Amino acid sequence: MSKAYLIGQITVTNPEGYAEYARQVPDTIHRHGGRYIVRGGTTSVLEGSPLGERQVVLEFPSRQAAQAWYDSPEYQAILHCRQDNSHGHLMLVDGYNDVF
Questions:
Q1: Quick check: 8 and 53 in contact, CB under 8 A?
Q2: What pLDDT score does 23 carry?
Q3: Which of 36, 73, 74, 76 makes a 20 to 30 Å CA pair with 46?
Q4: What is the CATH number of the domain that holds 68?
Q5: Between β-strands 35-39 and 86-94, what pairing exists: parallel, antiparallel or unpaired?
Q6: Distance of alpha carbon 45 from its chain centroid, rounded?
Q7: What angle separates helix 63-71 from helix 73-83, to the nearest 10 degrees?
Q8: Within a domain: 84
Q9: Rounded to a whole number, what is the largest CA-CA distance in the chain?
């Protein structure tokens, strides 16, 4: 089973409202075996156009764990804090499993 990565490209439109989401979300991620790989930081666009100003990459032990986090009652309870105060794109991507 390969790891899975949630990739978010987010533009915050209301920093005060988004702060509540940013404060609560790490605990929900950790409870589902996830961890931050990227959370903000300096971005340099090498090709194409960015889909958001803020980049986030989460690593989960599996696609099922990532989906369980997203669907969990504790995450769904705070999801509106992100959606109401930002816009962007989220993608769930399977990790590469280099097994021969």
A1: no
A2: 97
A3: 36
A4: 3.30.70.100
A5: unpaired
A6: 19
A7: 70
A8: yes
A9: 49
Other Cβ atoms closer than 10 A to 57: 14
CA 26/CA 43 separation, integer angstroms: 21
Rounded to a whole number of angstroms, the distance between the first and last alpha carbons of the chain is 14
Task: Give pLDDT, residue 53.
Answer: 94
Two structure tokens written together for 2: 């390969």
* Both structure tokens of 44: 């340099």
Query: How do the pLDDT tens digits run along the chain, 100 residues long?
Result: 799 999 999 999 999 999 999 999 999 999 999 999 999 989 999 999 989 999 999 999 999 999 999 999 999 999 999 999 999 999 999 999 876 6
Q: Which helix (H) or strand (E) holds 87?
A: strand 86-94
Per-residue model confidence (pLDDT) at position 1? 77
73 occurs within a structural domain: yes
